[in-house]
Write a structure and sequence with these properties.
By secondary structure, this protein is α+β, with helices and mostly antiparallel strands. It has one domain: Glutaredoxin. Helices cover 27% and strands 23% of the residues. It is built from 5 helices and 10 strands; from the N terminus they run βββαβαβαβαβββαβ. The strands form 2 sheets. A 7-stranded mixed β-sheet has the order 3-2-6-5-4-8-9. A 3-stranded antiparallel β-sheet has the order 1-10-7. The chain is globular. The chain starts with a strand and ends with a strand.
């Protein structure tokens, strides 16, 4: 299992805008309509990556918990489905239903959105404030498939809590680790 780290987009970067197909609703949705009132978590994930499969229970839980606190969650898959058919949009819909996603699961067919965010791996997490300025990027927590550490979302959870409470988020952030995005 290859381990690719996040590229760590510069803090303060404004979230690039996009409009993509939501595989759950079959509608084209954009950042402006999906962003949260207080913050937005954007994550690059996919169906088949063992790192994403490992974190799915926690991202589903966080999506539900923090939606009520004004944080919008958006999941995007940018993988090449010609060479990785298990990541196809119709299968994304099934994964979202099975995992209980309360957030949209968008398909980035052209991979332009992943490039705009300098995404490198799945999962890759970004937290933007109410003005869509990047406040956190990096790992969900220290848990990885097979390492025995608890899956609890500590790093992302702490960043979201600090942002909501007006506490400065530590700039020393650990990159996420996962499978590389499957580029065309």
């Amino acid at each position: 299992m290859a381990m690719t780290p996040s590229n760590m987009l510069s803090l303060g970067t404004i979230a690039p805008d996009f409009n993509l197909l939501d595989t759950i609703s079959a509608k084209t949705l954009g950042l402006q309509e999906l962003k949260g009132d207080k913050a937005t978590v954007l994550m690059f994930i996919c169906n088949h990556c063992p790192f994403v499969i490992h974190v799915n229970p926690e991202i589903a839980k966080l999506g539900l918990e923090y939606k009520a606190k004004g944080i919008g969650f958006i999941a995007i898959s940018s993988n090449d489905i010609e060479n990785y058919p298990q990541d196809a949009p119709h299968l994304m819909t099934k994964v979202a239903q099975r995992e209980g996603y309360s957030f949209p699961y968008l398909y980035d067919e052209t991979q332009e959105v992943a490039k705009a965010y300098d995404a490198a791996c799945t999962p890759d997490f970004y937290l933007f404030d109410a003005e869509l300025k990047l406040a956190y990027r990096g790992q969900l927590d220290d848990s990885r498939p097979g390492n025995g550490l608890p899956l609890n979302g500590t790093d992302l959870r702490n960043a979201m809590d600090n942002l909501l409470e007006g506490i400065t988020i530590d700039e020393n952030q650990k990159p996420s680790i996962g499978c590389n995005i499957k580029w065309k």
